[in-house]
């Protein structure tokens, strides 16, 4: 059972990393704490479900369109709403939280609640790893998580847009003097963050079901990971994902499932008391955040 | 003088006509049934539809006789959202008070989802003296309050199953599993809400502990939990033969998916709301063969040919709404409650809440649920024979996607079959 717990803890860690990395990327670059992140996750899942079940599109096409539309929607949120309040942190939080609430409550209002709202698994098969049954979907999550983290690193270190992202993240004014359009890059960062939420939903939702409440849950988990890791720090997100992922599964197995959330929240409080900027957060310092 | 006489005569006629006109006006005014519940959830949605169906039937048949007049029913609903995670009870209570004050219902049907909200809402119901026929919340705590202060809380009735009666059915199904296969090691998993907690603890203390079973684990899960891998690993490593789940949240479907994916060699028998309806077969890609599930009230989620009104209700719902009832809890008692209310109003001959309550207490009706009679806690009595009481059912999913009723024996259509990989000890 110990080995099994480690195995599921690793998978849980990747789930948390997938949930948090989009939120973290957006904050790291544009400085916008996108509190609509959980709602975008749910929006994308419902989008895929509608395309797949109501419009009868093929699965791959449905999720691809849904991811692209969610990215586009993220970009539009920035251009139409956030651009006007950029730099005013409180206004940004209120605006994004309001957008998120509207999206989630609209789904509740239209009655899109029930176990039938789910997405199919990519591969319906289970494997035995070290004596523990693990379904293929969970292994896919771990693999996609690894690929996504590596791709993001390559993107931000070896592409011109990625370097522009880092430039804005380090010092927006200096980046402007180098001809980097900060609003365009910020739009792209919010859009990319939304797209990452959609990718996470596409691979994680098949394990459970789509529900408006998932939006709040995902936001809380993303915030927990980012606060512990340090807002804006990609390395921090990975470490924090593993810290919480392991804490949750081991609490679940050896203490009790109802303590799982308490352990995570206690971890947040402890980190905030000991190191308010998070394990890897270096706010107030001019160091690169991604 | 002549003018005065004419004027007086005219006023006299007006005075005579007014009360008659007013009475005619009142006769046309519909009786409002308030539906305060969580409308965003399957059980709430389908319960509301079932109430509307009963109201349409009653209105089409001429309405409700109140004294000497016939009046129609009218449905007004409000979404309490109390089933959603994180919604505080006071917020749900605001909705309950709002519908009472704004829509002036003669009675409420369905009511809060969460027992916590019902228990707190009982004071509001007592304050405004509006009878409630609850069909979702299940904690026996409300009955205790009624027994302690009947004059105050007498307005609250429950036609759905409560946790105590559910315990009887879960214990009955476990007894059957033990009798058929010799299994006696169980792992209990329940949602961390009042009714599920009470049910799990009661099954343990009243059945498992007294009948030689070993309870290898009794774990509670916060509403919204969507990963059960740790518990399923424990089930495997501890050698549990039976998993008894008690959940009514949409995410509990994940447990079935994980049970299947992790190939856990234990029979799943309890209550998981997503597993109740016929659509579950497609939702879970046909990977639920062998799982048994409890339908809280006959007619909700499944009908039985052995109780024709339950089958009629199930078929009429399909015809009216174009889809089968998927919720295993709520719709049937909601439908039945409207007829119970109609009969109580007709016997009372008025809409006076105390008179309606007095007549509700005398209810003795055979319908969709079986025979409905209320006990002193205003709980509809559930048992194993539909001629004597209301009945719940336990069914099993077959490998071909059929649902076969296996318990109680009075309406059983087949015997429990073990899922692949699990061998009988007998």
Characterization of the model:
- The complex is a heterodimer of chains A (290) and B (426).
- By secondary structure, chain A is mainly alpha-helical.
- Chain A contains eleven helices and two strands, in the order H-H-H-H-E-E-H-H-H-H-H-H-H.
- In chain A, strands 1-2 form a two-stranded antiparallel sheet.
- In chain A, helix 1 runs antiparallel to helix 8 and helix 3 packs antiparallel against helix 4.
- Chain A is globular.
- With 426 residues, chain B is an alpha/beta fold.
- Chain B has helices at residues 2-28, 42-60, 89-103, 115-128, 141-148, 150-153, 163-181, 194-206, 229-238, 253-261, 280-283, 308-321, 331-348, 353-360, and strands at 31-37, 64-66, 69-71, 73-79, 107-110, 132-134, 156-158, 185-191, 214-221, 242-247, 267-272, 292-295, 364-367, 370-373, 382-383, 390-391, 393-397, 403-407.
- The relative contact order of chain B is 0.12.
- The longest helix of chain B has 27 residues, at 2-28.
- A seven-stranded mixed beta sheet of chain B has the order 9-8-10-11-12-17-18, with helices on both faces.
- Helix content of chain B is 43%, strand content 19%.
- In chain B, strand 13 (364-367) and strand 14 form a beta hairpin.
- Classes of the chains: A mainly alpha (290), B alpha/beta (426).
- The A-B interface holds A 1, 4-5, 8, 12, 108-109, 111, 113-118, 120-121, 124, 126, 132-135, 137, 207-209, 211-213, 216-217, 249, 252-253, 256-258, 260-261 and B 39-42, 45, 81, 84-86, 192, 219-222, 224-227, 229-231, 233-234, 237, 250-251, 253-254, 257-258, 261-264, 273-274, 279-280, 283, 285, 287, 326.
């Amino acid at each position: 059972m110990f080995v099994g717990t480690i195995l599921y803890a690793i998978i849980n860690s990747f789930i948390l990393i997938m949930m948090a990395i989009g939120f973290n990327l957006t904050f790291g670059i544009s400085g916008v704490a996108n509190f609509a992140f959980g709602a975008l996750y749910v929006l994308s899942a419902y989008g895929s479900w509608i395309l797949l079940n109501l419009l009868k599109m093929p699965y791959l096409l449905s999720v691809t369109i849904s991811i692209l539309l969610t990215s586009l929607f993220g970009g539009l949120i920035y251009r139409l709403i956030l651009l006007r309040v950029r730099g005013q942190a409180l206004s940004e939080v209120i605006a994004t939280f309001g957008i998120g609430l509207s999206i989630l409550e609209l789904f509740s209002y239209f009655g899109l609640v029930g176990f039938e709202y789910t997405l199919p698994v990519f591969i319906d098969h289970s494997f035995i790893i070290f004596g523990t049954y693990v379904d293929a979907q969970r292994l896919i999550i771990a693999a996609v998580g690894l690929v996504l983290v590596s791709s993001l690193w390559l993107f931000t270190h070896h592409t011109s847009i990625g370097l522009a992202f880092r430039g804005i993240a380090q010092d927006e004014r200096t980046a402007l003097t180098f001809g980097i359009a900060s609003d365009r890059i910020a739009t792209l960062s919010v859009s990319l963050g939304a797209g990452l939420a959609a990718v996470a939903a596409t691979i994680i939702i098949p394990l459970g079901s789509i529900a408006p409440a998932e939006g709040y849950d995902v936001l809380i988990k993303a915030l927990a990971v980012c606060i512990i890791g340090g807002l804006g720090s990609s390395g921090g997100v990975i470490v924090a994902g593993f810290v919480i992922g392991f804490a949750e599964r081991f609490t679940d197995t050896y203490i009790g499932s109802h303590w799982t959330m308490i352990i995570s929240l206690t971890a947040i409080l402890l980190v905030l008391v000991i190191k308010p900027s998070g394990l890897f957060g270096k706010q107030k310092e001019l160091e690169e955040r991604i | 003088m002549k003018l005065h006489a004419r004027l007086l005569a005219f006023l006299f006629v007006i005075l005579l006509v007014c009360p008659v006109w007013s009475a005619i006006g009142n006769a046309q005014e519909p009786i409002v049934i308030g539906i305060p519940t969580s409308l965003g959830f399957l059980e709430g949605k389908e319960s509301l539809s079932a109430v509307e169906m009963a109201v349409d039937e009653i209105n089409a048949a001429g309405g409700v006789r109140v004294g000497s007049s016939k009046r129609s029913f009218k449905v007004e609903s409000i979404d309490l959202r109390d089933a959603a995670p994180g919604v505080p009870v006071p917020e749900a209570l605001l909705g309950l008070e709002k519908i009472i004050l704004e829509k002036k219902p003669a009675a409420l049907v369905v009511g809060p989802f969460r027992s916590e909200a019902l228990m707190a809402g009982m004071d509001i119901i007592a304050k405004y003296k509006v009878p409630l026929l609850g069909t979702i919340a299940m904690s026996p705590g409300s009955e205790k309050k009624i027994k302690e202060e009947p004059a105050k809380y007498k307005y609250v009735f429950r036609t759905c199953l409560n946790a105590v009666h559910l315990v009887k059915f879960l214990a009955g199904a476990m007894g059957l599993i033990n009798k058929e296969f010799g299994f006696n090691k169980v792992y209990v998993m329940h949602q961390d809400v009042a009714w599920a907690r009470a049910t799990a603890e009661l099954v343990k203390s009243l059945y498992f502990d007294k009948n030689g079973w070993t309870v290898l684990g009794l774990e509670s899960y916060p509403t919204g939990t969507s990963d059960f891998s740790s518990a399923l690993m424990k089930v495997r490593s501890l050698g549990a033969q039976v998993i008894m789940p008690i959940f009514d949240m949409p995410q509990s479907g994940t447990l079935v998916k994980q049970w299947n994916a992790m190939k856990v060699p234990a029979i799943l028998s309890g209550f998981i709301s997503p597993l109740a309806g016929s659509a579950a077969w497609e939702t879970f890609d046909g990977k639920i063969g062998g799982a048994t599930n409890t339908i809280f009230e006959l007619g909700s989620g499944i009908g039985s040919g052995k109780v024709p009104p339950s089958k009629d209700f199930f078929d009429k719902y399909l015809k009216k709404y174009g889809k089968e009832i998927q919720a295993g809890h709520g719709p049937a008692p909601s439908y039945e409650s409207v007829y119970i209310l109609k009969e109580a109003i007709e016997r009372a001959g008025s809409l006076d809440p105390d008179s309606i309550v007095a007549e509700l207490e005398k209810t003795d009706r055979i319908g969709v649920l079986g025979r409905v009679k209320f006990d002193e806690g205003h709980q509809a009595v559930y048992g194993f024979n539909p001629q004597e009481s209301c009945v719940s059912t336990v069914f099993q999913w077959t490998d071909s996607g059929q649902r076969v009723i296996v318990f109680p024996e009075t309406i059983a259509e087949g015997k429990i079959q073990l899922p692949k990989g699990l061998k009988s000890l007998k």
